[in-house]
Amino acid sequence: MKALVIGAGIGGLSAAVALQNAGIACQVFEAVKEIKPVGAAISIWPNGVKCMNHLGMGEMMETYGGPMRSMAYRDYRKGETLTQFSLAPLVERVGGRPCPVSRAELQREMLNHWGRDRVQFGKRVNEVEEHADSVTAWFSDGTCAHGDFLIAADGSHSALRPYVLGYTPERRYAGYVNWNGLVKIDEAIAPAEQWTTFVGEGKRVSLMPVSDGRFYFFFDVPLPAGLAEDRSTLRDDLTRYFSGWAPPVQRLIAALDPQTTNRIEIHDIEPFDTLVRGKVALLGDAGHSTTPDIGQGGCAAMEDAVVLGNLFREQSDIENVLRQYEALRCDRVRDLVLKARKRCDITHGKDMALTQAWYQELKEESGERIINGLCDTIQGGPLG
């Protein structure tokens, strides 16, 4: 049996490894000639870490996952702590630690694990055809590939999504812009082993430790889409948006490198009622494009891959397996997309009364409620 996997990002490579582990030959195709990760880092929560362990790639998490041992929210003006608590109870309850990791490192290590020379780059898919016992993918360079089934892991701008759904869904602007990058850890900004978030005015400034003594940072600002801002104005833009914020925030703005800081307008897509058509299945962002507000985008793609691989270990009827995959994943990924959207709206001041109430709740937060919410999300995954 042979699978065509479209996309060599986190989802596509996870799927290829899962299928290979199930005894299925895979060809992996990537549209770009060189993968440049979107975003500086990614949160891999314990459900994702368990998936990576299950797929035989857990060592990457241990090696490159930052030591995030506690969590804190701070007031935006004075920098005073609203709440601070250990993540040890989370680790104990779910059986693993969260691993914030550089996207470039994760992408590199996953490519190396699969075999970079086994990925066909510069292969942009533009059409798929199903036959009685096979699938053909056609690429923009005029070539094609044949397989028994196809996994479309070609990202949030998926070219194959309309084929599966029968329509082209609209991306929904979530209402805010995110700047993200990496800086050296500076404890005058935040503790080295803590996820620290400054909140106020419907905005966020957040720092997470990743490997090699670096913070992954991001700034969120509710803004109209399409503003003419770029790297040349980046530091001035952030200085303006975060005027009056606490000294650690100003120190972070001064420390970042505009040339390596990303600016992204955040979108999601309304959850789908289907992930499969015939012998073609959507996986990862192609099947569930979410905002990053609960840090589950990459984890959900890993979960997809694990479920798919496990089903193929049990049986070889392709269309039956893909129908089961859809049945097992649709509700789970819908829940994650909508949870992230709800968190996004509260965090970013869609209704400032609700956002202000959240700030007040943080002052009374022991950590138990937040950890309970994280555990609920994590333990909803296929590996518990």
Summarize, please.
The chain has 384 residues and is an alpha/beta fold. The protein is built from 12 helices and 18 strands.
Binned strand content? 25-35%
Report low-confidence residues grouped into runs of 5 or more. Answer: none
Mean pLDDT: 97
Helix content: 25-40%
N-to-C CA distance: 29 Å
What does this protein look like?
This protein is an alpha/beta fold. It has a single domain (2-171, 268-380), classed as FAD/NAD(P)-binding domain. It is built from 12 helices and 18 strands. A 7-stranded mixed β-sheet has the order 5-4-13-14-15-12-16, with helices on both faces. A hairpin with a 3-residue loop joins strand 14 (203-210) and strand 15. Pfam families: FAD_binding_3 (PF01494). It catalyses: urate + NADH + O2 + H(+) = 5-hydroxyisourate + NAD(+) + H2O.
Name some characteristics of this structure.
384 residues; seven-stranded mixed sheet; 37% helix; alpha/beta; FAD/NAD(P)-binding domain; globular; six-stranded mixed sheet; 12 helices
Secondary-structure topology with pairs:
Elements: E1 2-6, H1 10-21, E2 25-29, E3 41-44, H2 46-55, H3 58-64, E4 70-75, E5 81-86, H4 88-94, E6 99-102, H5 103-114, E7 119-120, E8 125-130, E9 135-139, E10 144-147, E11 149-152, H6 161-165, E12 171-184, E13 194-200, E14 203-210, E15 214-222, H7 234-241, H8 247-255, E16 262-269, E17 276-277, E18 280-282, H9 297-314, H10 318-347, H11 352-363, H12 368-378
